[in-house]
Amino acid sequence: MSLLSLTQHEAATRSALLEVQRYDIAVDMTGLLEGEVFASTSTITFTCSEPGATTFVDVAMDVSRATLNGADVDVSQAADGRLPLPALAADNVLVVEASTTNTATGEGILRTVDPTDKLVYVWTSLEPDEARRVWACFDQPDLKAPHRFVVTAPSSWVVTSNGAPESIEDAESSDAKVWTYPDTPRLSTYVVVVNAGPFHEVRREHDGYDLGFYCRQSLVPVLERDLDELVTLTRQGLAFFGERFAFPFPQARYDQVFVPNLGGAMENWGCVTYGDGQLFRTPPTHAQRSVRAEFIFHEMAHMWFGDLVTMQWWDDLWLNEAFASWAANWGMAGASEFTDQWATFLAVSKRTAYEMDMSPASHPIRSEVADVSAAMANFDAITYVKGQSVLHQLVAYIGEDAFVEGLRDYFSRFAFSNTRLDDLMDCYARASGRDLSAWTKAWLDEAGADVISLVGDELVVTTTDDQEPRPHHLDIAVFDTSGDQLVAVGRSSHEVTGSRTPVELPAGDLRLVNAGDFTFAAVKPDATSLEQMLTRIDQLTDPLDRALVGATAGQLLLLGDVAPRDVSAALTRALASETSPALVEPFLGQALLVADRWAPAAESPGLLRSLADTVVGLVDLPDARQAALRTLAASASTDAHWSVLDEAAAKATDLDLAWRILVRRSELGDHDEDRVARLLESDPDPDAGMRRLAVLAARPDAEAKEEVWRAFFVDYAVPASRETLVLGSTFWRPGQAELLAPYTHRYLDELHTLKGGLLNQGLTIRSMFPLGAGDASFLAAAEAAADDTGLMAYARNQLRANSFVLRRILQARQL
């Protein structure tokens, strides 16, 4: 079914015309137990400010009947996801009966059959305008209304929605139950939800909240293993945000549902859904736990920023996501065990934003959004990561107390309504006493990353396309390097305005610009500072300072100012003595990336061997052991490396390390199908077939590559999760460039025929770009494809950003 994308003009016209009083939605899921039919009857009560006017209701389904104020509506006119409505009265009741069999692609709804026990699970995920795929509605964020759901589902299923059910009763005419839910608060159409299946459910009462956790039956042991941690994080987040925002989450029920084949998570009011890849099959490392905690805090922050107060139109989508991402790090650092979260954010996440913002895919954080499809084109690292970095800079610029006071004012004024960015900035301006109009324009309306250098006693800011430099509030840390150990001699804060800002600093050969990582800018150190930071990174006592050196090295790779071998050596040196759990895995990941993908073919094996030698020394450290073994499994090349791995695998109580060893051996040409088959048979993970695919993906064999390719692009058999990204990088081994060359160009062809929802398509687009494996011929084709308007805008932007990084990789290999 071809669908029209709602334009901003259409949305504004309809919003001026209508006010929705309520939605009463009856859902029938009984057709999903053994089939693909999902049915709904949507009753919409609304008023019209101009009686006699006409409009349309959004419904991308097969409409069987519709009535407006008791009179039949001609449903044959339904097309492009819209049903035209005849002349409206002042007060209206619209009833639309519809169904869909599009339940296998993840477009608004997904039906999944667990491969281990054949049980069926269903989720809905409705951002940005996917609600129209499951029931009729006015699908735009500023037409908020209470929603009441009555769900008929197979009797063996559990149903979750935005609150606690009022009643659960047997259906009269079938083996089903009827779940009736009370009115939600006034919510936008994209944050309501219905999930169903034979879920395992656990409930906990804490601090006046009724907390629910759900997963599929095959993952019960995993959920039970991590339940205490999930409960603790949820309690900490609700308490922290409730107090800091001076607005506790206003309902007792808060559910978190882990569902199969969801690429990410969705902030449905009171009922968050996560892809169940977050239920790590192997006891998670510190970094995996940190990522999951960030998901929990991010989606929870949306309860206030996005759900309680919602953007009027999608041009402020960035603010929803940037705020939730910033608040997640803020909350984790302030309320959880992950106190060094800002160091982790710098070491892991900011690189993705710098890569995109330095590339031709750069765009302003805020921009005009002509229609909904255009909003999704910018669902990227600039929206999430640069956006939250800019909010972090705003906190530094006006002070945290004023920032929190402004937020409290904002939530108090605008609860359950819609706003524009100006509403929030006015609250911050009142709280801080500062005029933020110029700050807002510079940071949100201009694309690109400033580059800051410390030249003599001046901070020099260079910009993209001769723009005016942004205002920066930043710190500089100075260290004396004359002895065997670094000695901190000063740390000072500076307001940077214009292209040159004089600074007074104490004497010292190592000067860290942007210490504390308060601003978003690439930093070019002076030659002496660069040499000292790379050779003495391990002597910096603050984890955030060490993270800053790693991040600066990554920026300099993008700028072409440092060779991969020097960055790899610095990170390997840092790892030899790194003790912070917040940095061990980020540094391992960055070191592996540089040695494996950035380094030239002649140097890569030696750098990987050096990294593996260092990692062996981390295996006996309890906090680093698991992450070290995983990195060793990705870089092993000597008998000593394999001896450590084989000994660890023999002692392991899980199968994760065994799979990783098979992947590495397969890459090196030692593929044993019998070993793979035995491991697959013994692995209880319902997604264990993906681990077998990873072994095939690494293998330098055309038949194996073809099977993985078909799983991605023909059968759509790769579950959406973070492991999708790992599988993609495993496929594109830089040392297999000749074998992979035809696939690089096939990737560009496949972008025209991708299926599924935005989150799942986005994962495939990112994971299967041949980063580090594509050559100059592919690069030229990819850059040309980025201008192909036959591709969706999101794919074109990702091509531009990834092609930029690939070009930098190819250039760096010449240094």
UniProtKB/TrEMBL annotation:
Pfam families, per the entry: ERAP1_C, Peptidase_M1, Peptidase_M1_N
Enzyme class: hydrolase
Domain of life where this protein originates: Bacteria
Catalytic activity: Release of an N-terminal amino acid, Xaa-|-Yaa- from a peptide, amide or arylamide. Xaa is preferably Ala, but may be most amino acids including Pro (slow action). When a terminal hydrophobic residue is followed by a prolyl residue, the two may be released as an intact Xaa-Pro dipeptide
GO terms under cellular component: cytoplasm; extracellular space; membrane
InterPro entries hit by this protein: Aminopeptidase_N-like_N, Aminopeptidase_N-like_N_sf, ERAP1-like_C_dom, Pept_M1_aminopeptidase, Peptidase_M1, Peptidase_M1_aminopeptidases, Peptidase_M1_dom, Peptidase_M4/M1_CTD_sf
Keyword Hydrolase: yes
Protein name: Aminopeptidase N
Organism for this UniProt entry: Nocardioides zhouii
Record lineage: Bacteria, Bacillati, Actinomycetota, Actinomycetes, Propionibacteriales
